[in-house]
């Protein structure tokens, strides 16, 4: 038994250290993570009695659905009979109420979960079918007899650790050199180094001050948040203004927004949380994400974000007439938000996965206190990995809000071979929002009451009626002749028209709209100052798909 334990240690340590050197089998040449392959039998009776090494007795091998998933196993007794569970699992989510810490292991080291009525063990690992062979040996406690001759254990533990340190240091050095080269390349491409510095320091701040931002709140203790009033209602969730307590007293708190999903809407919560989890998404024109919580006791999922008291763009435009400067600020920042979402590089040149929003509309844009915009509601968004097949893209279906759907989306005739077509559909929707902003700007002359594109908010617009207007009659929101009286509005109107072109290929990109805004606002100096006026509120009963 002593010898057997030493062999088990040697096997485990070599497997763990080998994974430091080996190119992971789950990654392809471009470095994309491929789905893991695991034993997947869910629950089965087992002969394993939770000692030594057990085979899972599961004969089914399955490719995990999601590339983030790893292999997991659990062992417990059910009415005295031992049972084994094998499956794929996303380690960002709890497994039997536990967050997995060992999912980067190459072997499955069973750990006893404390606080359970019966014996209960779980393990996770990230190598092909690694949840088949289960080690019930606690490597942190030396087995009897091993102390007598510690040399083999010392050798197998210290040597791989030393090698791992050397490899990590070399990797860090290579990353540093690569990063410097990247920065140089970015500067030579003409990106303003000042902007880069600002964004970098922003990122740095977010890395250090909230290392947990863009992640699930792994603490079992939930944030001390007191919900206040409801500020928004979507198809899957409700948004509340809330107080995040900062100290012992009730007086010190930070206002936050909490988006609350019922347990049945787990998929929507997960989709939005996965989008927000990408640290590279952070941008001043994208709603700032704080954390996600699984509020088990209330059977609710939460997403906690920054709170913007001016509310959404539709509410803001309903209540205010804006000046030319505000038009440029709102419109330019909206375009910058969309361009960042669509980009495959951050402004500093770091690689990023392009994202499409797929439900851009004035309700999904928030107005910040400095009158710039930020994008919100990523419940229908899609990360455009380079390895997505047309089938995967097609499965994502026709989604969005009928009023804002591009003609090719209304017709379900998008070119799924080309991921750019998803961005082109976003640009169409963005054009409608830019039109809404312009229609409330005093620079156009006579400003009418706020109306959304294609008629009154109360009008029920379904896909079929939108097809008649947008495809059959090629209708677009009206751009009256008076809009040409102002040079800036005239230039902007032409850009809007290019963005809502019937032919998706003819539309300009969001980045091009960003550049147009800086040209327009530098050429046209504000001839009119901002004025504000109150207007009536209006309801929102859009048809959503
Ligand atoms: N409505 C939806 N999300 C919001 C937020 N983060 N702040 C203010 N109003 C909102």
UniProtKB/TrEMBL annotation:
Record family assignment: Belongs to the protein kinase superfamily. TKL Ser/Thr protein kinase family. TGFB receptor subfamily.
Name by which UniProt lists this protein: Serine/threonine-protein kinase receptor
Active site, renumbered: 359
Molecular function (Gene Ontology), one example: ATP binding
Gene3D superfamilies in the cross-refs: CD59, Phosphorylase Kinase, domain 1, Transferase(Phosphotransferase) domain 1
Record SUPFAM superfamilies: Protein kinase-like (PK-like), Snake toxin-like
UniProt-listed Pfam families: ecTbetaR2, PK_Tyr_Ser-Thr
Membrane-topology annotation of the record: Single-pass type I membrane protein
EC number: 2.7.11.30
GO biological process: anatomical structure morphogenesis; apoptotic process; cell differentiation; cellular response to growth factor stimulus; heart development; positive regulation of developmental process; regulation of multicellular organismal process; tube development
Alphabetical keyword list: Apoptosis, ATP-binding, Cell membrane, Differentiation, Disulfide bond, Glycoprotein, Growth regulation, Kinase, Magnesium, Manganese, Membrane, Metal-binding, Nucleotide-binding, Phosphoprotein, Receptor, Serine/threonine-protein kinase, Signal, Transferase, Transmembrane, Transmembrane helix
Catalytic activity: L-seryl-[receptor-protein] + ATP = O-phospho-L-seryl-[receptor-protein] + ADP + H(+); L-threonyl-[receptor-protein] + ATP = O-phospho-L-threonyl-[receptor-protein] + ADP + H(+)
Binding annotation for ATP: 231-239, 259
Disulfide bridges in this chain: 38-71, 41-58, 48-54, 64-88, 108-123, 125-130
Cellular localisation: Cell membrane; Membrane raft; Membrane
InterPro entries documented for this protein: Kinase-like_dom_sf (IPR011009), Prot_kinase_dom (IPR000719), Protein_kinase_ATP_BS (IPR017441), Ser-Thr/Tyr_kinase_cat_dom (IPR001245), Ser/Thr_kinase_AS (IPR008271), Snake_toxin-like_sf (IPR045860), TGFB_receptor (IPR000333), Transform_growth_fac-b_typ-2 (IPR017194)
Organism domain of life: Eukaryota
Assigned GO CC terms: membrane raft; plasma membrane; receptor complex
Record's keyword annotation contains Nucleus: no
Record field: transmembrane: 6-23, 153-178
Cofactor list: Mg(2+); Mn(2+)
């Amino acid at each position: 038994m002593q010898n057997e334990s030493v062999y088990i240690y040697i096997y485990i340590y070599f497997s763990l250290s080998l994974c430091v050197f080996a190119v992971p089998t789950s990654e392809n040449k471009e470095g994309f993570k491929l789905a893991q392959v695991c034993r997947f039998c869910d629950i089965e009776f087992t002969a394993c009695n939770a000692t030594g090494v057990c085979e899972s007795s599961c004969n089914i091998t399955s490719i995990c659905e999601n590339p983030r998933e790893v292999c997991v196993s659990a062992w417990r007794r059910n009415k005295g009979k031992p049972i084994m569970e094998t499956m794929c699992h996303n380690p960002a989510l709890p497994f039997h109420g536990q967050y997995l810490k060992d999912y980067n292991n190459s072997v499955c080291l069973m750990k006893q979960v404390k606080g359970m009525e019966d014996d209960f063990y779980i393990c996770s690992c990230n190598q092909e079918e690694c949840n088949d062979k289960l080690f019930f040996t606690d490597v942190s406690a030396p087995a009897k007899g091993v102390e007598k001759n510690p040399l083999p254990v010392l050798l197998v533990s210290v040597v791989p650790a030393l090698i791992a340190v050397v490899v990590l240091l070399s990797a860090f050095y290579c990353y540093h050199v690569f990063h410097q080269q990247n920065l140089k390349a970015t500067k030579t491409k003409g990106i303003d180094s000042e902007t880069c510095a600002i964004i970098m320091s922003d990122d740095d701040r977010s890395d250090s001050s909230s290392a947990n931002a863009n992640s699930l709140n792994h603490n079992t203790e939930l944030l001390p948040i007191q919900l206040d009033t409801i500020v928004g209602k979507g198809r899957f969730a409700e948004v509340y203004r809330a107080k995040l307590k900062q100290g012992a007293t009730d007086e010190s708190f930070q206002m936050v927004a909490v988006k609350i999903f019922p347990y049945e809407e787990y998929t929507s919560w997960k989709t939005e949380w996965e989008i927000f989890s990408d640290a590279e998404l952070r941008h001043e024109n994208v709603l700032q994400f704080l954390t996600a919580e699984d509020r088990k006791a209330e059977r609710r999922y939460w997403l906690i974000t920054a709170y913007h008291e001016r509310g959404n763009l539709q509410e803001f435009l309903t209540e205010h007439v804006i000046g030319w400067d505000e038009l440029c600020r709102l419109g330019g920042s909206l375009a910058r938000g969309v361009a960042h979402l669509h980009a495959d590089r951050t402004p500093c040149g770091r690689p990023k996965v392009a994202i499409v929003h797929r439900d851009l509309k004035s309700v999904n844009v928030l107005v910040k206190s400095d009158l710039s915009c930020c994008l919100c509601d990523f419940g229908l968004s899609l990360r455009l990995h380079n390895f997505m097949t047309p089938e995967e893209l097609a499965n994502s279906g026709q989604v969005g809000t009928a009023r804002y759907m591009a003609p090719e989306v209304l017709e379900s005739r998008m070119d799924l071979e080309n991921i750019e077509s998803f961005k082109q559909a976003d640009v169409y929707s963005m054009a409608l929002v830019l039109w809404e902003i312009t229609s409330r700007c005093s620079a156009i002359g006579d400003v009418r009451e706020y109306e959304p594109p294609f008629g009154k908010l109360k009008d029920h617009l379904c896909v079929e009626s939108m097809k008649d207007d947008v495809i059959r009659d090629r209708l677009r929101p009206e751009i009256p002749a008076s809009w040409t009286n102002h040079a800036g509005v005239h230039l902007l109107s032409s850009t809007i028209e290019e963005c809502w072109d019937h032919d998706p290929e003819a539309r300009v990109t969001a980045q091009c709209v960003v550049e147009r805004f800086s040209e327009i606002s530098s050429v046209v100096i504000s001839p009119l100052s901002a004025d504000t006026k109150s207007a009536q509120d209006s309801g929102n009963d859009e048809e959503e798909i």
